[in-house]
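Today's session is about reading a structure prediction critically. Students often jump straight to the picture, but the first step is always the sequence itself: look for stretches that repeat, for charged clusters, for runs of hydrophobic residues. Only then move on to the predicted structure, which in these notes is written as discrete structure tokens rather than atom positions. Here is the chain we will use throughout the hour.
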Amino acid sequence: QLHRRGFRCLHGVDGSEGMLERARSTGLYQELRLCVLGREPLPAPAEHYDAVTVVGALGEGQVPTTVLPELLRVTKPGGFLCLTTRSNPSNLRYKAELEAAVGRLEQSGAWQKLLAQEVEHWERATSEEESTQGTGYISGVVYIYQKCPVPSLAEG
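Below is the predicted structure for this chain, in token form.
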């Protein structure tokens, strides 16, 4: 979808070489690197990207919420961060932890929330217990934040 909307310089990371190979096969990425989010720094300099997205990785037993400062580090001031997580029962503890962490960063002035939108049919459920009200789907949330510009030093 990003490519169809004119984004042409896409970089990606994943902790799985197999997933990186799948991504390579699409021909959409200019750079793909092995990186386990939350365990090692992203392979990019500070303030490098106009936008950073994390889709399908922020969840229970996957990427820890402690990754957020690292995502901010590689985003340019004024740049955007798009994060997603599931709202299914087994992910509710993680979702609450994520929302607390993004809230703390917003209160500290690191970024500003532009959107937090529930998506009813985020992905197909793998079990009836995970299905949102018997729909066969799991709901999710899309969060969009804008990194606050670095305040200029007052003269005097």
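Discussion point for the tutorial: The two ends are 48 Å apart (CA to CA).
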